[in-house]
Predict the structure.
Amino acid sequence: MKVIILDKKTYEFKEELDISKDYQIVLDIVLNQNSYFVTNHTKSISSIGDIIILHERSFFYIGVITNIELTDFGEIKLTSIDYISSLDFEINALEFNGNIGDELIRYIKEEYVENHDEHQNRPFLRLLNELDIVGKITVEDNKLTKFSDFLRDVYKQYKIRLEARLGILNGVITHLKIVTIDSRNEHILSSNFPMIRGLNISDNKEVNLNKITFIPNTDNVSNILLFIIRGFLRLLTIFRNLRTIKLCLFSVDSCEFIPQIYDRAFVVYYHIFIRQSLLI
């Protein structure tokens, strides 16, 4: 794979770098998180703030370089955030009633297209809103806020997000387009957990790399009880020839439920709930 580096002010091509197998791409519309790319090069003319583009088949990653360093092996490592997350300027948010997409575009236009400071403007940007979602935005008067926080609040309320796209003319990257996206029909992986950490993806089904622990609520306690009873029946069947079995009682509200394949349910419950209280 290769990444293309474009100048942060002029959008002109600077260099193309080969990427090693050591890279990580993080796209998160809620939290601004870093991606990184370890290259196969020892020198680079890239600068902080330059635009980094990865094109892999039908997938595009467009980001802004936030750090450049050498690895222990002398390879250039580029750290970046996605382009939309880099739009982290401060705004004096105003109460608004109308087309929400137009209002989001207006803030970006004032900051990067029609700014009185010419050095702040990005002439390669094209801004487009094709949505017709009308609503009301309520904010505190005369309070400065970051655009990223404002955008996050709008997304939570109206499910409108921004997306950066490449403008290509005759096979040449000519501009960068920011468009509004209606996310109301998108499928989102979400949870009410404080956080799900360290998920690893396996290329095959031979090894289970991840384990997620669920705490049951009142809506699914009845289903969990049925699952537990079935697990106990399987367990009792296995130990039916033993002389004595002593099981401890426990509170379902405080237990941890780990979903497994049904055929192995007795192993799960034996391991979690009664292994230390089973006396033979």
About this structure: The two ends are 60 Å apart (CA to CA).
